[in-house]
C-alpha cells in the first residue's frame, strides 16, 4: 500500500487550486460608489461631455477618485455615497436627456484579474437593497384581440369569395364559430379558410341541419403570440428601465407569462412604477394636402391640423386619428412582392376601429397617411433644491406612405428604402402597438441598510459556523482533522470562485446554503475517517486503513449525496426567487465539497503519509 | 479524542417497539395540531403585503396596531422583528386598492417609521407557490425513492420513504403547534431536510448491504443492529457538526433566516432519530432478508456434452 498520487494528479490539484484562488480573489477588493454615464444613441461619449462632467464636479466641489472611460460609457468613482448621489443629480441635469446617468457600485478589481474575466460576486437584492417586481403579462387578452381581428378577417375573406354564411361568433374561452346554411357552402368555406388561415385548426361540425366550422388557434400560433407578447413587453421594459437610470437591472422571463424586474439601488418605488407603466402609442393620421404648407411653416397653422417634421421635411397632419396603436397586434419587417423591404402590419382588437379605418382609407386612396409615434417620457429636473420628475409627451412621425387601397386587417407599408429601415419601423410600430396588459403581481423593496445588515449577519454566521466546525475537527481528528479543515476552506474558495466566474447571484438564502454545505461537507470526511479508525481498530495496518477507508467510504458518500442533490435539483426547477438561489448554492456546494473532501484531503494525506512505513496515524485514536 | 471508544452495542432493534410508539404518537399529535391549529402560512402563500419598518426609538406594538386600525386596515398583524425598534407589519390582501395606495396609507398612518422592506404578493402568485411547493415535495419523494430502489432494494426505498414522510410531518407539527410562520424559505429548509435525513439513512443502508454480504452468521435483526451501531459514531458526528453550523445560523443569521434555521435544527434532530430508529426497523418489518441483498448469482450454462 503506497498511497501516493501520480505527479499529474498532484499538479492538477495545484492548478485547480490556483484557478479557484484567481476567480475568488476579486471579492477581496472593495467597491466604490460610482456614477455611470452612458449615451442613449449608442454613440461614443464625446470629449466635450467628459469636459462638461469634469467642470460640474469641479464647480460643485465634489471629490472624485477617478473618471474612467469604458466602452461607450463613463464611470466616475467617489469616496462616499452622499457625493455620489449629489453628483448623479448634478450631472443628470447638466448633460440633458440623451444621456443616462445611473448609480453604480464599481468594483476595484485589478486590471490583471479583469483581463482573466474574474469579477466579484453579484449580490442579490436582499443583500444590496433595491426593488423587485414580478409582472404578469396578460397574454390571454392579447390572444382574444388576435381572434377578434381574425374573426373579422374570416368574414371578409368569405364575403370576398362570395361564400354566404349565416353567422360568425367568438366562443368563450376561445375559438371562432361560423355557421352555414348547407353542407356545400360549408365545404367551400372550409377550403377557402384553410388556404388562408394557417394559424387555425378548422373543424367541420354538422349536426341535424346545423352546418358550422369551428376555428381554433393552433398551439404553435398560441406559443408564437405568447412569445411575441413577452418579447415585446421585455423590450419595452428594457427601454423604460434604461430611462430609469439603473445600471445592472435584471429583466428576465419567468415561466410562460411572467417577467421579473430587479432594480438594484432603487428606493423610490412610486417613480419606478410610474415609469414602468408608461405607454408609447401610435396614431394613424391623414396628411393634410389641401392647405398651404408654406404658410403653415411660416406660422399660420390651420385649425384642425398640426405641423410635424419628418426626415427634414415639414408635414401638416389632420388632427383626426383614424386608427390608434392599440388596434395593431403585429408588426414585422418583410419584403413586398417586388422584393423591396416592407413592414407587415396586422390589426385586431376593437372591430369597429378596424372597419372605421377600412372606410377612411377607402375614401382616401391615393393620398398620404402618416404614422405618429407618441411617447411619454419622464425626466428628473432640478428646481431650486428639489428634484422632481417631469413627464412630457413626445410626438414624432415615423412613416408617411400613400394609401394604395382600402386597408383591412392585414396591410403592408411597402417601398421602404432599406431592410434596416423596415426593421426599425417595425420595432417602433411594435412598441406603440397593443401591449398585452401587464400587472404587478409581486413586489419587494429592500432598504440599503437592511441589505448591508443581511450581508453582515450572513457573514457572521458563516464565520462562526465555519470556525466551530474547524476547531472541532482539528480537536477530534488531529492531523486528519486539519486536512478536512483545509478541504472546507478550499470548498468555500471554490464555491465563491464558481459563483463569481459564472455570474451567479448570491442571496441571503444562498449564504444559508453555504453555511449548510460547510456542515454537510465535513460529512464526507467524517465518513472516511470513521472508517479508517474502524479498520485500525480491527488491527489493519495504517497504510491499508487509509486505502480501505477512502475506497469504501467513496460509494457511501456518493450514494448519500446524490439523494440531497436530487432534492436540490427539484427545488431548483420548481422553486422561484429565493428558493432558487438556495438550491443553486446547495448544488454547487455539494459538488465542490465532494471533490475537495475526497480528492484534496487524499492528496494531502498521501503527501504526509504516502510512500513510507507508518506506525501510527494522527487521527485521534 | 473518541466519543465512542469501543464498539457500541446498543440493541436498537429491541427498542424499536418503543420507537414505534413514540413516533406514532408524535405523528398523530402533529397531524392533530395541523388539523386544529393549521399552519401559520407566510405571505408567500397567502398573498398580501408585508412591511418592515424601523423606528429610532423603541416602540409600543399595540400603539402601532391602533394607528393602523384607525387608518382602516383590517386585522393587521404587528410583530416586533428582532429588536424593539424593528417592526414587521402584515396586511391582508385588499381588493381594488393598488399597492402604492397601501404603502402611502401606511406611511401616513405611521409617520415616524422608516420603511426598510416591503413585500407584496398577489393572491394568484401565492396559489402557484402552494401548488409548486406541494409538487416539489411529491417529486422529491418519488425521485429519491426511485434512486434508492435502483441502488439498493425496493424494501429500503419504501421504508426510507416512510421514514422520510415522518420527518417533515413532525417539523410541520411543531411549526403549527407554536404558530411559527411557514414560508417559502421554510419550505426549502423542509425539502433540504428530506435530502439530509435520507443522507443518514443511506449511510446506514449502505452498511447493512455490506454486512449482509460479509457477515455470514446472524439474523437480519442482528445485522441491522450491528450496522446501526457501526455507523452510529459517524451519524452522531455529522449530525452534531451540521447542527452546530445551523445553530450558528439560528443565532447569528438574523431574523430573515430564523424560521429557516429552526426548521433545519428540528429537521436534523428528527432526521437523525428516524435514520437510527425508524428506517432500519421498517426495512426489517417489511421482511428484508439476507438473500435480497446478495449480488445476483452468475449462472453458468453447461453447454458441454
Can you describe this structure?
Chain A has 16 helices and 22 strands. Chain A has helices at 7-24, 47-59, 81-95, 111-115, 125-128, 139-160, 183-196, 219-244, 269-276, 293-297, 351-363, 419-432, 448-502, 508-537, 542-574, 578-609, and strands at residues 31-39, 64-70, 73-78, 99-107, 122-123, 130-137, 167-170, 176-180, 200-207, 210-217, 250-254, 258-264, 281-287, 305-310, 313-324, 328-335, 341-347, 368-383, 386-402, 410-413, 438-446, 505-506. In chain A, the strands form six sheets. In chain A, strands 14-15-13-18-19 form a five-stranded antiparallel β-sheet. In chain A, strands 2-3-1-4 form a four-stranded antiparallel β-sheet. A four-stranded antiparallel β-sheet of chain A has the order 11-12-6-21. In chain A, a hairpin with a 2-residue loop joins strand 2 and strand 3 (73-78). In chain A, helix 2 crosses helix 3 (81-95). The longest helix of chain A is centred in the C-terminal third of the chain and has 55 residues, at 448-502. Chain A is flat and about 105 Å long. With 305 residues, chain B is an alpha+beta fold. Chain B folds into two domains: 16-40 and 125-293, Multidrug efflux transporter AcrB transmembrane fold (Up-down Bundle); 48-121, 2-Layer Sandwich (Alpha-Beta Plaits). Chain B has helices at residues 16-37, 43-46, 61-70, 99-109, 123-151, 154-177, 184-214, 220-252, 258-285, 290-293, and strands at residues 40-41, 48-54, 77-81, 83-91, 114-121, 181-182. The N and C termini of chain B lie far apart (64 Å). The chains are: A alpha+beta (621), B alpha+beta (305). At the A-B interface, helix 9, strand 21, helix 13, helix 14 and helix 15 of A face helix 4, strand 5, helix 5, helix 7 and helix 8 of B.
Amino acid at each position: 500500500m503506497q498511497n501516493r498520487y501520480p505527479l499529474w494528479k498532484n499538479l492538477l490539484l495545484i492548478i485547480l487550486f490556483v484557478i479557484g484562488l484567481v476567480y475568488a480573489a476579486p471579492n477581496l477588493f472593495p467597491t466604490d460608489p460610482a456614477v455611470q454615464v452612458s449615451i442613449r444613441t449608442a454613440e461614443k461619449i464625446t470629449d466635450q461631455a467628459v469636459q462638461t462632467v469634469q467642470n460640474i464636479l469641479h464647480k460643485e466641489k465634489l471629490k472624485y477618485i477617478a473618471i474612467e472611460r469604458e466602452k461607450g460609457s463613463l464611470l466616475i468613482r467617489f469616496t462616499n455615497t452622499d457625493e455620489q448621489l449629489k453628483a448623479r443629480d448634478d450631472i443628470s441635469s447638466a448633460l440633458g436627456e440623451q444621456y443616462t446617468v445611473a448609480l453604480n457600485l464599481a468594483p476595484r478589481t485589478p486590471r490583471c484579474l479583469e483581463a482573466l474575466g474574474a469579477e466579484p460576486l453579484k449580490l442579490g437584492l436582499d443583500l444590496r437593497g433595491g426593488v423587485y417586481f414580478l409582472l404578469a403579462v396578460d397574454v390571454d387578452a392579447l390572444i382574444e384581440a388576435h381572434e377578434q381581428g381574425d374573426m373579422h378577417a374570416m368574414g371578409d375573406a368569405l364575403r370576398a369569395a362570395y361564400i354566404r354564411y349565416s353567422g360568425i361568433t367568438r366562443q368563450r374561452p376561445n375559438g371562432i364559430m361560423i355557421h352555414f346554411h348547407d353542407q356545400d357552402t360549408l365545404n367551400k368555406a372550409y377550403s377557402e379558410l384553410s388556404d388562408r388561415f394557417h394559424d387555425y385548426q378548422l373543424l367541420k361540425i354538422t349536426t341535424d341541419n346545423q352546418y358550422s366550422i369551428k376555428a381554433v388557434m393552433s398551439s404553435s400560433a398560441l406559443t408564437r403570440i405568447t412569445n411575441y407578447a413577452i418579447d415585446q413587453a421585455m423590450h419595452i421594459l428594457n427601454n423604460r428601465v434604461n430611462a430609469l437610470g439603473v445600471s445592472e437591472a435584471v429583466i428576465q422571463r419567468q415561466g410562460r407569462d411572467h417577467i421579473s424586474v430587479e432594480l438594484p439601488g432603487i428606493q423610490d418605488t412610486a417613480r419606478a412604477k410610474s415609469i414602468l407603466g408608461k405607454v408609447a402609442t401610435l396614431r394613424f393620421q391623414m396628411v393634410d394636402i389641401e392647405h398651404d404648407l408654406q404658410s403653415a411653416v411660416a406660422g399660420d397653422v390651420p385649425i384642425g391640423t398640426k405641423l410635424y417634421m419628418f426626415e427634414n421635411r415639414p408635414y401638416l397632419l389632420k388632427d383626426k386619428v383614424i386608427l390608434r396603436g392599440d388596434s395593431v397586434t403585429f408588426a414585422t419587417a418583410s419584403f413586398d412582392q417586388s422584393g423591396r423591404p416592407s413592414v407587415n402590419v396586422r390589426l385586431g382588437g376593437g372591430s369597429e376601429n378596424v372597419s372605421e379605418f377600412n372606410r377612411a382609407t377607402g375614401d382616401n386612396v391615393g393620398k398620404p397617411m402618416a404614422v405618429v409615434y407618441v411617447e411619454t417620457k419622464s425626466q428628473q429636473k432640478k428646481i431650486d433644491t428639489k428634484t422632481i420628475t417631469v413627464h412630457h409627451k413626445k410626438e414624432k412621425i415615423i412613416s408617411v406612405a400613400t394609401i394604395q387601397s382600402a386597408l383591412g386587417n392585414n396591410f403592408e407599408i411597402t417601398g421602404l428604402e432599406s431592410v434596416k429601415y423596415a426593421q426599425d419601423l417595425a420595432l417602433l410600430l411594435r412598441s406603440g402597438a397593443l401591449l398585452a396588459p401587464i400587472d404587478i403581481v409581486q413586489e419587494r423593496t429592500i432598504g440599503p441598510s437592511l441589505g448591508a445588515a443581511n450581508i453582515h449577519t450572513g457573514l457572521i454566521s458563516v464565520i462562526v459556523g465555519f470556525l466551530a466546525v474547524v476547531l472541532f475537527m482539528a480537536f477530534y481528528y488531529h492531523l486528519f482533522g486539519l486536512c478536512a479543515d483545509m478541504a472546507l476552506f478550499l470548498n468555500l474558495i471554490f464555491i465563491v470562485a464558481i459563483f463569481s466566474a459564472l455570474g451567479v447571484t448570491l442571496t441571503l438564502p444562498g449564504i444559508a446554503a453555504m453555511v449548510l454545505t460547510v456542515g454537510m461537507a465535513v460529512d464526507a470526511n467524517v465518513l472516511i475517517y470513521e472508517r479508517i479508525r474502524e479498520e485500525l481498530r480491527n488491527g489493519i495496518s495504517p497504510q491499508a486503513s487509509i486505502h480501505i477507508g477512502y475506497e469504501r467510504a467513496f460509494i457511501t458518500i456518493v450514494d448519500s449525496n446524490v439523494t440531497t442533490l436530487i432534492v436540490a435539483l427539484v427545488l431548483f426547477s420548481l422553486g422561484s426567487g429565493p428558493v432558487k438561489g438556495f438550491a443553486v448554492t446547495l448544488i454547487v456546494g455539494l459538488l465542490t465539497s465532494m471533490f475537495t473532501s475526497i480528492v484534496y484531503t487524499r492528496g494531502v494525506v498521501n503527501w504526509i503519509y504516502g510512500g513510507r512505513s507508518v506506525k501510527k496515524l494522527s487521527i485521534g485514536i | 479524542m473518541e466519543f465512542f471508544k469501543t464498539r457500541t452495542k446498543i440493541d436498537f432493534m429491541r427498542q424499536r417497539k418503543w420507537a414505534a410508539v413514540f413516533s406514532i404518537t408524535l405523528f398523530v399529535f402533529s397531524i392533530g395540531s395541523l388539523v386544529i391549529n393549521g399552519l401559520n402560512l407566510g405571505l408567500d402563500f397567502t398573498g398580501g403585503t408585508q412591511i418592515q419598518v424601523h423606528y429610532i426609538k423603541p416602540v409600543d406594538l399595540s400603539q402601532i396596531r391602533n394607528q393602523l386600525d384607525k387608518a382602516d386596515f383590517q386585522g393587521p398583524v404587528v410583530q416586533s422583528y428582532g429588536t424593539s425598534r424593528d417592526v414587521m407589519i402584515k396586511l391582508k390582501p385588499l381588493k381594488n386598492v393598488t399597492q402604492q395606495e397601501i404603502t402611502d396609507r401606511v406611511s401616513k398612518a405611521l409617520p415616524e417609521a422608516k420603511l426598510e422592506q416591503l413585500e407584496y404578493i398577489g393572491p394568484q402568485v401565492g396559489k402557484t407557490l402552494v401548488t409548486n411547493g406541494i409538487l416539489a415535495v411529491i417529486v422529491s419523494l418519488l425521485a429519491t425513492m426511485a434512486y434508492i430502489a435502483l441502488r439498493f432494494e425496493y424494501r429500503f426505498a419504501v421504508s426510507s420513504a416512510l421514514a422520510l414522510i415522518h420527518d417533515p410531518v413532525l417539523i410541520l407539527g411543531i411549526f403549527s403547534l407554536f404558530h411559527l410562520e411557514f414560508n417559502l424559505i421554510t419550505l426549502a429548509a423542509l425539502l433540504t431536510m428530506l435530502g439530509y435525513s435520507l443522507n443518514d439513512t443511506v449511510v446506514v443502508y449502505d452498511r447493512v448491504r455490506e454486512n449482509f454480504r460479509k457477515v455470514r452468521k446472524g439474523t437480519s435483526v442482528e445485522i441491522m443492529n450491528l450496522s446501526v451501531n457501526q455507523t452510529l459514531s459517524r451519524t452522531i458526528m455529522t449530525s452534531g457538526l451540521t447542527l452546530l453550523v445551523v445553530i450558528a445560523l439560528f443565532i447569528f443569521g438574523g431574523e430573515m433566516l430564523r424560521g429557516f434555521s429552526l426548521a433545519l435544527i428540528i429537521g436534523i434532530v428528527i432526521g437523525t432519530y428516524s435514520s437510527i430508529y425508524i428506517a432500519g426497523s421498517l426495512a426489517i418489518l417489511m421482511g428484508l432478508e439476507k438473500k435480497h441483498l446478495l449480488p445476483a448469482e452468475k449462472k453458468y450454462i453447461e453447454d458441454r456434452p
